[in-house]
Design a protein that fits this description.
The complex is a heterodimer of chains A (336) and B (346). Chain A is mainly α and 336 residues long. Chain A contains 13 helices and two strands. Chain A has one domain: ABC transporter involved in vitamin B12 uptake, BtuC. Chain A has a two-stranded antiparallel ribbon with strand order 1-2. The relative contact order of chain A is 0.21. With 346 residues, chain B is α/β, with parallel strands linked by helices. Chain B has two domains: 152 residues, Rossmann fold (3-Layer(aba) Sandwich); 134 residues, Rossmann fold. In chain B, β11 and β12 form a beta hairpin. The longest helix of chain B has 21 residues. Chain B is elongated and about 60 Å long. Classes of the chains: A mainly alpha (336), B alpha/beta (346). At the A-B interface, α2, α5, α6, α10 and α12 of A face α2, β7, α7, α8 and α9 of B. Chain B: Keywords: Signal.
């Protein structure tokens, strides 16, 4: 029964629903094990406060990771997301500081449009130039950051320059659930629907799975690639506003190196870096796993000098565990 | 079995290494050059920081009085690689003086040594580099005074009792580490025996990392009464973290603040007081020291004096250290009087 999954294209991009459940089940088990582990290590971990913090913490990563996943689906990559978040964070915060009466909705809209424009630049370059996307976006990583530095100079926008309503985006809760987490879930939910239930979504995976035959079947792959980058830029714009709201200080180095955090979440979430494979649900779990690890280690009061190394080790263990578990489940699925 | 060749080879290698070292050593101090004919490379920790913009203002003040060609260049965010690149470009431009506020005191040393070998004079300001890699260090105030001034604000606000944590800048920053050592030494005094330092963490002068470090500290230590933030970004982040977690009323945050863009923290009462000095005067003094150094008026020996414009005559102390003055404790009552010292130009 599982022999049918590598023959015809673009069909292989459509994972069997059973296999998809397995993939996410493995990650789900990893998440539960980690939560249980940290809960026994430190009693402070298993509290509503901690889960609210984890939810807030993973939101910005998840929003950008959803975009990154779309790009990876098409067998491309966007390493400029950190710079895009930084630039839009700076522009959104400056706009709010300069025009205090501006409705927040408008700020968010402007930031998303700016982000989408930056993403469109990436998308147009990747789709038209026959240059690997990692090179194109490495270039724009520096260009966007350079523009940010030139605009910001030595200025810093601090929480004092921003209206209280701005930070309220990050601190607000609904029934104890952080607003930021709800935004992130909404973004992920929408992306999930598009990927699973629309032709565009399935075509994205098909493009990444086998570009040549996708082209032959009449899929406009260039347009899809352009679209994936533009959506990623838009999500970076949203993340930029949230970044300023959450961390208060916005300068020219916001979100430096953030692309690696995002990539980690996406890859831990089971999205294949060579395209065509992955689910949005996996990305949600990937972001959650990383956030549980960093929050748990911080609560366990691990020395800051060891924190990163231990974090890396736990990530590797988690991925290995997921992989072993998944292979087991898959082999059982085949034998029955 | 004897292998006479090996000994000879080692000897030759050692000799070669020695001559190589000798060639790299400056053959004596470079000839004096008046600052008017000089270009000076002044490297801040990071340029995305209003504090260093105010330092630059002071340097430009002095440059107007003394002449010379100033390039104030540094990495946007504080990274050591970016600083080393600026040292190398200063060296290639043949700068008379390379001045640096070091992100990492030892990592920049080899590049500075190479620049010295090429005839540049090296000074450090604001944050020192390893001994031997610079001729002068222009210090804003002694580490002892700065450490005590910050600690006293915290101790008073905590009523001399309770747990506190530190959110610092980089773990490699020698100056901040020096203050922290002073603070830890204070804890041995009977007066402060009720205070306990639970953890020192590092936010690398990055808003997100500092915020995350402050949140981790507050959550891991529910009885925390205070956060010492000996760098403005960490102070801002710690105030925000305490507010976001709803513990601002029981956790006091203080340390090093920048009145240039953090006067509001004092006026709203979120921070009772914080410490700094005049960055503008520091830039001004650094330029004057650099000018006297390159002109050959001073060599970095203890006891030498030089004229520093509006700041009067300054004396070089032990270890080639020029101390500008005393730290200033800013409160909501006095902060407005100092805003001139934090002006930024361009």
């Amino acid at each position: 029964m599982s022999t049918s999954d590598t023959r015809t294209a673009p069909a292989p991009a459509l994972p069997e629903s059973r296999r998809r459940i397995h993939r996410e089940a493995g990650l789900g088990v990893v998440l539960v094990v980690l939560v249980a582990l940290f809960a026994t290590l430190t009693p402070r971990f298993a509290t509503g406060d901690t889960f609210a913090q984890i939810g807030t913490d993973l939101s910005i990563v998840l929003i950008v990771a959803v975009g990154q996943a779309l790009v990876l689906f098409t067998r491309n990559i966007d390493v400029s997301v950190g710079s895009t978040v930084g630039l839009t964070a700076y522009l959104a915060a400056s706009l709010t500081a300069a025009v205090p009466g501006l409705p927040l909705v408008l700020t968010v809209l402007v930031a998303c449009l700016l982000g989408a424009a930056l993403g469109a630049v990436n998308g147009a370059l990747v789709a038209t130039l026959k240059v690997p996307s990692i090179m194109v976006t490495l270039g724009t990583l520096y260009i966007f950051r350079g523009i940010n530095s030139a605009l910001a100079g030595s200025s810093q926008i601090t929480a004092q320059n921003l209206p209280d309503s701005y930070s309220a985006i990050a601190t607000g809760t609904v029934l104890g659930i952080p607003l930021m987490f709800l935004y992130a879930l909404a973004v992920a939910g929408l992306a999930h629907l598009v990927i699973r239930h629309t032709f565009t979504g399935r075509a994205m995976l098909a493009v990444g799975s086998d570009p040549a035959s996708a082209e032959r079947t009449g899929i406009a792959s260039k347009r899809l690639v352009f679209g994936a980058y533009t959506v990623t830029g838009l999500l970076c714009g949203l993340a930029g506003v949230l970044w300023g709201a959450r961390y208060g200080t916005v300068d020219s180095s916001v979100a430096t190196g953030f692309e690696l955090v995002v990539l980690a979440a996406v890859v831990v979430g089971g999205v294949r870096i060579t395209g065509g494979v992955g689910t949005v649900g996996g990305v949600v779990l990937g972001a959650a796993i990383l956030s549980v690890i960093s929050t748990g280690l911080a609560l366990a009061d691990v020395s800051p000098f060891w924190l990163q190394a231990i974090q890396g080790l736990v990530i590797i263990l988690a991925i290995t565990f997921d992989l072993v578990l998944r292979r087991r489940l898959e082999s059982r699925g085949v034998s029955t | 079995m004897r292998r006479p060749g090996v000994g000879a080879a080692i000897a030759t290698a050692a000799l070669l290494a020695l001559t190589a070292c000798a060639a790299a050593e400056p053959s004596g101090p470079p000839p004096p050059r008046p600052v008017r004919d000089c270009n000076l490379t002044m490297i801040p920790k990071n340029t995305d920081n209003p504090y260093f913009a105010a330092v630059r203002t002071g340097m430009v003040d002095a440059q107007r009085e003394l002449g010379g060609d100033l390039s104030f260049v540094g990495p946007a965010a504080g990274d050591v690689t970016g600083q080393i690149q600026r040292i190398q470009s200063g060296r290639q431009r043949g700068s008379c003086v390379i001045g640096i506020s070091a992100v990492d005191s030892s990592a920049v040393a080899p590049a500075l040594d190479a620049a010295r070998a090429d005839g540049s004079r090296v000074i450090s300001y604001d944050a020192d580099v390893s001994d031997g890699s610079r001729g002068l260090f222009v210090n804003m105030a002694t580490a002892d005074e700065l450490g005590r001034a910050q600690f006293e604000i915290l101790a008073r606000a905590m009523g001399n009792t309770g747990e506190f944590g530190i959110v610092s800048s980089q773990s490699t920053a020698e100056v901040t580490n020096g203050w922290i050592d002073v603070m830890i030494a204070q804890l041995d005094e009977a007066e402060y025996s009720g205070m306990r330092l639970v953890r020192t963490s590092y936010g690398d002068d990055d808003a997100k990392k500092s915020y995350d470090a402050a949140v981790a500290l507050l959550r891991a230590h529910p009885n925390l009464r205070g956060i010492m933030a000996p760098t403005p970004i960490a102070m801002e982040a710690s105030v925000k973290a305490a507010t976001d977690l709803g513990v601002a009323d029981r956790v006091v945050v203080t340390g090093l603040g920048n009145p240039g863009n953090q006067a509001e923290l004092l006026k709203t009462g979120q921070v009772p007081a914080y410490v700094l000095w005049s960055p503008r005067d520091l830039g001004y003094l650094t330029y004057y020291a650099a000018a006297a150094y390159t002109a050959g008026e001073i060599t970095g020996r203890a006891g030498e004096t030089f004229a520093a414009g509006r700041l009067g005559r300054k004396t070089i102390g032990p270890g080639g250290e020029v101390v500008m003055g005393h730290p200033i404790t800013f409160t909501q009552d006095n902060v407005d009087r100092y805003l001139h010292d934090f002006e930024t130009t361009g």
